[in-house]
TrEMBL record:
<dbReference type="InterPro" id="IPR044611">
    <property type="entry name" value="E3A/B/C-like"/>
</dbReference>
<dbReference type="InterPro" id="IPR000569">
    <property type="entry name" value="HECT_dom"/>
</dbReference>
<feature type="region of interest" description="Disordered">
    <location>
        <begin position="138"/>
        <end position="176"/>
    </location>
</feature>
<keyword id="KW-0597">Phosphoprotein</keyword>
<dbReference type="GO" id="GO:0061630">
    <property type="term" value="F:ubiquitin protein ligase activity"/>
</dbReference>
<keyword id="KW-0479">Metal-binding</keyword>
<dbReference type="GO" id="GO:0010604">
    <property type="term" value="P:positive regulation of macromolecule metabolic process"/>
</dbReference>
<dbReference type="InterPro" id="IPR042556">
    <property type="entry name" value="AZUL_sf"/>
</dbReference>
<dbReference type="GO" id="GO:0042752">
    <property type="term" value="P:regulation of circadian rhythm"/>
</dbReference>
<keyword id="KW-0963">Cytoplasm</keyword>
<dbReference type="GO" id="GO:0048511">
    <property type="term" value="P:rhythmic process"/>
</dbReference>
<keyword id="KW-0863">Zinc-finger</keyword>
<dbReference type="GO" id="GO:0000209">
    <property type="term" value="P:protein polyubiquitination"/>
</dbReference>
<dbReference type="GO" id="GO:0080090">
    <property type="term" value="P:regulation of primary metabolic process"/>
</dbReference>
<dbReference type="Pfam" id="PF00632">
    <property type="entry name" value="HECT"/>
</dbReference>
<protein>
    <recommendedName>
        <fullName>Ubiquitin-protein ligase E3A</fullName>
        <ecNumber>2.3.2.26</ecNumber>
    </recommendedName>
</protein>
<keyword id="KW-0862">Zinc</keyword>
């Protein structure tokens, strides 16, 4: 237990000994509210509090007295007043938990008296007491809504009748519009005892009364510290799972995002909720996944607003990290529950998973373990405890209720120190919180920084190990993954070298890549590698080789099921994709999304055909939607045919004796599923297995699978297709005497902005070695334009390793345009300047 928590507990014991809990019927002998308690002075109470803390004595729930004055302000006390001058009939002091009927009765009484003090006091008492709130609004108590209807204003009744008519006309069936009994049936599967419909109806009335707003805020402030301590030290949820009711009821408050909650009440509530055990968070997730979109979005926006409010209200730096801000951390952990609820409530496919090949664990100590670095190089991605409990992963989501992008908090991303966060993620996970454990809140740019640190540390580690081995064995150290290739035989040379490395020492693939073109003087600081990747891809995706088929409509490649190439060729392209991510290079690859889903462990399904094989997808969709007699009108069987590499027809039975099984209305879904499975999985199993093997040779120990979704992996490999040259101009730096106000620079940007799309790609290829924008767009590309002499007929040159353009000071814009176009159009090869 840390010092702050111990101090808080001792203070609670002290208050209990000096002020009491406010419960006139208290039986706790260590509470001032107990009738048998002997009063203590402050010094004696302080000593007694320390003694009670040591023996972990019983703590009472606090029962505050909250009364509202005529102007809506509240005053608080430690004891309930039995007699209040504002009441002539009842004081409702016997109400120890709430039902919908109880609230209606008190509300009717208050409206008749024209004074809400009684209701304010009851709400304050119940909502500040964990046991009282836990017992409130139970399904097993009769909650007739007659009283509620009678206490509603006339205009509200009228609006609801109109709303009901509208719902009937439109056939609305969302959870929000269901009557109480039907709403409870929706949530019964989650095994909660709260009548959520009743809670929502009560909140609708309470939140329309200004005096009650303050009472709810104050009650939550009293409630949450006690709940947090109970969960952390008393394991109350294990004793009584209904303790979850407290969080369900509080989260139904639609005003939690308002300013009066953001400073104290909501941060404390999030800290308490983050202390719930994983099994309770899973129950909460399943319940919220049944909610309709407006309710779950409201909860998401509540937690997001708290994170943003806290971040912009504080200043963070290398010493004061956002990772140490308890409010931000707790709100992020609460937001994770909503994130998984959004996934569960949407379209999910928890089946169709590829079988991963498990590495055999050796009993021998690795060198990393001998050096004490095993924590940095754990194999395989870590498992999120909530994800494991729910049995669902983000990559299982087909379409979530709320788009993934809405969970990213830009304000938070701006203040995260990613180098420190990475250290917490890899080394200090038990003691420090890392936002990489909740990757849904991070942008691709931020996660890419974390991946960059992981890759670089692995590279440096391999370099150290190589140096150590070379010292022991007396050999020349080889700290890089060196590839020496001929331009005219680039595939053969790369294939032979990479195949030897993958068989002899696969860990060498995790060294920093260093490419040398035979007969050329270029030194690889990144630019030569970029060209190597480009040339390998051009060769491998050449239709004449026949490794991949090309779809003209989609402009995408797919594995050729009848290819004559060896598996080693497919392993090579897998290694190339892995090396591109590992060495932070952008590739011009055109794969459908299903390829990245399969790389991340999912199988291709019918829905994946929409972008990989759109014509086939539309045909199968027509079969599923056909209203007539499928068997007689379409006359299809479970036998299909397609053409091979040479245009010859290939017959395949989707089931045994498929030609004897007609497709009918009853089995058409099965026909579509097995057809898609054959096209996307079985027919290319040999080719894809080799391709994935190569990819995993480089990335198997990377957090790639844990941090990124398939669409984000595509962005890492291919970069952004959107080329925003305005953003590039704003971030470009100048050297050698140039500035943004130099005439030649002004002419240069006018020329570049006038280029067509293809010419802009050529310019990027010439200057950076890739025609794609990096993750985050061209604004993230640090380009340098340096002066390269006065007016001359020489062409512009570039250092692609450093994204540097060497531009002579041409005498006119026309000459600059002509020289630049010639340079970018005919550029090929590397030399020494």
């Amino acid at each position: 237990m840390n010092r702050a928590t111990a101090k808080l507990l001792i203070e609670r014991y002290f208050r209990q000994l000096t002020e009491g809990c406010g419960n006139g019927n208290c039986t706790n002998e260590f509470c001032a509210s107990c009738c048998d308690f002997q009063p203590l002075d402050n010094n004696s109470a302080a000593a007694k509090a320390l003694e009670l803390f040591k023996i972990n004595a019983k703590l009472c729930d606090y029962h505050p007295s909250i009364t509202a004055s005529a102007d809506g302000r509240t005053r608080e006390g430690s004891e309930m007043s039995d007699k209040d001058p504002g009441f002539t009939k009842e004081d409702f002091s016997e109400v120890h938990h709430l039902t919908e009927n109880t609230v209606c009765t008190i509300l009717s009484f208050c409206e008749e008296e024209g004074d809400y003090s009684a209701l304010v006091r009851v709400i304050g008492r119940v909502f500040s007491n964990a046991e009282a709130l836990m017992k409130s609004f139970r399904k097993d108590e009769s909650n007739s809504t007659d009283n509620l209807e009678s206490c509603k204003p006339a205009d509200m009744k009228k609006d609801e009748k109109l709303s009901e008519r509208s719902s009937e006309k439109t056939g609305a069936s969302s959870a929000a519009s269901l009557p109480g009994e039907a709403l409870n049936e929706v949530f019964d599967a989650c095994e909660v005892t709260v009548d959520i419909g009743a809670v929502r109806r009560v909140y609708d009335r309470l939140l329309s009364i200004d005096q009650l707003q303050v009472a709810l805020v104050n009650a939550l402030i009293y409630l949450t510290p006690n709940v947090e301590l109970d969960l952390e030290y008393l394991d109350v949820y294990e004793t009584n799972p209904d303790y979850l009711n407290i969080f369900i009821i509080v989260m139904e408050n639609t005003n939690l995002h308002s300013p009066e909650y953001l400073e104290v009440a909501l941060p404390q509530f999030c800290k308490a909720m983050s202390k719930l055990p994983v099994i309770a968070l899973a129950r909460l997730t399943k319940l919220w996944s049944k909610y309709d979109l407006p309710h779950i979005r409201r909860m998401m926006e509540t937690f997001q607003q708290l994170i943003t409010f806290t971040v912009v209200s504080n200043e963070y730096d290398g010493e004061n990290l956002v990772n140490d801000d308890e409010t931000v951390v707790a709100a992020t952990q609460c937001l994770q529950v909503v994130f998984f609820a959004s996934i569960l409530g949407g379209d999910v496919d928890v089946e169709h998973n590829e079988e991963d090949e498990e590495d055999s664990d050796s009993d021998e100590l690795t060198l990393h373990e001998l050096l004490g670095e095993e924590r940095l190089y754990k194999k395989g991605p870590r498992i999120n405890p909530l994800e494991k409990e729910l049995g669902v992963r983000p990559m299982d989501s087909i379409k979530p209720l709320i788009p993934f992008e809405d969970f990213i908090n830009e304000s938070l991303n701006d203040v995260i120190e990613m180098d420190k966060d990475f250290t917490f993620f890899k080394v200090n996970a038990e003691t420090k919180f890392s936002f990489q454990t909740c990757p849904f809140i991070l942008s691709v740019i931020t996660k890419n920084q974390g991946l960059y640190y992981d890759n670089r540390i692995r590279m440096y580690s391999e370099r150290r190990l190589t140096a150590l081995f070379s010292m022991v064995q007396g050999q020349q150290p080889n700290p890089y993954l060196k590839l020496k290739v001929r331009r005219d035989h680039i595939i053969d040379d790369a294939l032979v070298r990479l195949e030897m490395i993958s068989m002899e020492n696969p860990s060498d693939l995790k060294k920093q890549l260093y490419v040398e073109f035979e007969g050329e003087q270029g030194v690889d600081e990144g630019g030569v590698s970029k060209e190597f990747f480009q040339l390998v891809l051009e060769e491998i995706f050449n239709p004449d080789i026949g490794m991949f088929t090309y779809e003209n409509d989609t402009k995408l490649f797919w594995f050729n099921s009848s290819s004559l190439e060896t598996e080693a060729q497919y392993t090579l392209i897998g290694i190339v994709l892995g090396l591109a991510i590992y060495n932070n290079c952008i590739l011009d690859v055109h794969f459908p999304m299903v390829v990245y889903r399969k790389l991340m462990g999912k199988k291709g399904t019918y829905l994946d055909l929409s972008d990989s094989h759109p014509v086939l997808y539309q045909s199968l969709k027509g079969v599923l939607e056909y209203m007539g007699n499928v068997e007689e009108d379409m006359m299809m069987t479970f036998q299909i045919s397609h053409t091979d590499l040479f245009g010859n027809p290939v017959i395949h039975d989707l089931k045994e004796q498929g030609d004897q099984i007609p497709v009918t209305k009853e089995n058409r879904q099965e026909f579509v599923d097995v057809y898609a499975d054959y096209i996307l999985n079985k027919s290319v199993e040999r080719q894809f297995k080799a391709f994935k093997k190569g990819f995993l040779m480089v990335t198997n120990e990377s957090p790639l699978k844990y941090l990124f979704r398939p669409e984000e992996v595509e962005l890492l490999i291919c970069g952004s297709r959107k080329l925003d040259f305005e953003a590039l101009e704003k971030t470009t730096e100048y050297d050698g005497g140039y500035s943004k106000d130099s005439q030649v620079i002004k002419d240069f940007w006018e020329v570049v902005h006038s280029f067509g799309e293809d010419q802009k790609k050529l310019f990027l290829q010439f200057t950076t070695g890739s025609d794609r924008a990096p993750v985050g767009g061209l604004g993230k590309l640090k380009m340098i334009i340096a002066k390269n002499g006065s007016d001359t007929d020489r062409l512009p040159t570039s250092h692609t390793c450093f994204n540097a353009l060497l531009l002579p000071e041409y005498s006119s814009k026309e000459k600059l345009r002509e020289r630049l176009l010639k340079a970018i159009t005919y550029a090929k090869g590397f030399g020494m300047l």
